[in-house]
Amino acid sequence: MNTSVPVAILGPTGYTGLELLELLANHPRMHAAYLASARPEPIDITREFPRLCDRLDSTTPALTKPIDHDAIARACKLAFLCLPHDAAIAHTPPLLDRGVKVVDLSAAYRIKDPATYHSAYAHHHTDLNNLAHAIYGLPELNRAAIRSAMLVANPGCYPTAAALALAPFIRAGLIEPGTIVINAASGVSGAGREPKPHTTLVEAGDNFSTYALGTHRHEPEIEQTLASITPAGSGAPGVLFLPHLLPIERGILETITAVPSATAQSMDQQALTNVLSEAYRSEPFVVVRSDAPTLRDVQRTNRVHLSVKLLPAKGPRPSRLIIVAAIDNLTKGASGQALQNANLMLGLDEHLGLR
Ligand SMILES: NC(=O)c1ccc[n+]([C@@H]2O[C@H](COP(=O)([O-])OP(=O)(O)OC[C@H]3O[C@@H](n4cnc5c(N)ncnc54)[C@H](OP(=O)(O)O)[C@@H]3O)[C@@H](O)[C@H]2O)c1
User: Fold this and answer.
1) Is 38 near ligand 1, meaning CB less than 6 Å away?
2) 87 and 13 Cβ atoms separated by less than 8 Å
3) Is 206 helix (H, G, I), strand (E, B) or coil?
4) Which of 87-91, 181-185, 193-197, 268-272 has the lowest mean pLDDT?
5) Co-location of 54 and 174 in the same domain
6) Above pLDDT 70, what percent of the chain?
């Protein structure tokens, strides 16, 4: 008999919470059994998000309840934390202590070095025990460890696209250390639902801007992932991360440049594309293309689309690898990947609810 696994969403009133509710509504083996909010009064989730009014099935409660760890543990096997990082650190230990598996969508458990976490997030980590055993939830790089994890740190949206684009080339030693530049642009939903001055329609609409140039919190996360797969003896990859805000709701496009190694310079276009297609041959959510992807190809899907091109040297400019990656920040960059991880942690088929 195919039973459905009850799960909780902490923070169902935000964008990643809404995305999870929509994905779970189509999941044959998992359902949202507990919607946990810190607001003082219960919220009717279909009033909060009228688009859900005819989408939720009978197993999903209409009203939110308080974040009560005992009640969540009685009702659910796994909890998705769609919360700010400090709130995620407050709720993860009591849930794990009660035997509830956790997929944390915040950055709280992604960066292993507490000092790096503190300098990126201006927040002292107070749960070093769980930080030490949290598994970084990028299934394409880390599937076996995710299957047996109690706590998965769901990757950031920009880092998901960057790591999947660069990992095959880093592993094969095809990129010169210290030469990676990630030009990235995200839709406004990447900043969350809480209003901020730079994400209003007047500021962000019909506009295009940089932000946090070289200081973005996702830069150390990308560097940590790439360092973890760099062959021994090679220099640390090092990245320069240049984020931009796009005047659209959702989607991330990254145009990544790097100086190719001598081996990569001797490869033809097809051989470079094969580096990506062979690395991701069995991956259900990675599409390797000969042309550069666009956001429209991936919006509202859990897929990453990737392409690579080698530009030969021209005059004083050395040759460059140009890798383009496109994802939906709320799906593969957040809630879709969280569901992919939860499927693995619960022993379910990895693509359930995601196609
Ligand atoms: N947006 C993205 O594309 C994206 C991608 C990857 C990862 N993430 C990460 O995922 C997490 C959620 O992001 P989001 O975009 O969904 O944010 P959001 O739209 O701002 O939603 C945040 C949610 O957390 C709740 N909340 C805020 N402070 C809380 C507290 N102290 N205690 C309990 N609940 C609290 C909010 O409840 P109220 O509605 O009551 O305020 C809301 O439900 C963040 O850590 C974010 O960095 C987001």
Assistant:
1) yes
2) no
3) coil
4) 193-197
5) no
6) 99
Q: Are strands 239-245 and 180-186 parallel, antiparallel or unpaired?
A: parallel
In a domain, 268, yes or no: yes
Q: 């041959």: which residue's tokens?
A: 281
Same domain, 181 and 72: no
pLDDT of res. 236: 86
Give the pLDDT of residue 147.
98
Domain coverage including residue 242 = 158-329
Say which CATH number the domain at 184 has. Answer: 3.30.360.10
Nearest CA to ligand 1 atom 5: 334
Alpha carbon of residue 159 to chain centroid:
7
- Res 175: pLDDT: 96
Structure tokens at 337: 């990947």
Has 53 been annotated as catalytic? no
Tell how far the Cα of 60 is from the centroid of ligand 1, in angstroms.
20
With tokens 């640390």, the residue in question is: 236
Query: What six digits make up the tokens of 238?
Result: 């090092």
319 shares a domain with 174: yes
Q: Which residues of 312-322 are buried (b: 16+ CB within 10 A; e: fewer)?
A: eeeeeeeebbe
Residue 1: what pLDDT? 60
Do 227 and 236 meet the contact criterion of CB atoms below 8 Å apart? yes
Q: 56 with 62: CB under 8 angstroms?
A: yes
Residue 17 in contact with ligand 1 by CB distance below 6 A: yes
Backbone angles phi, psi at 9, to 5 degrees: -120, 120
Contact 244, 208 (CB under 8 A): yes
Whole-structure pTM value: 0.97
- Cβ–ligand 1 contact at 74 (below 6 Å): no
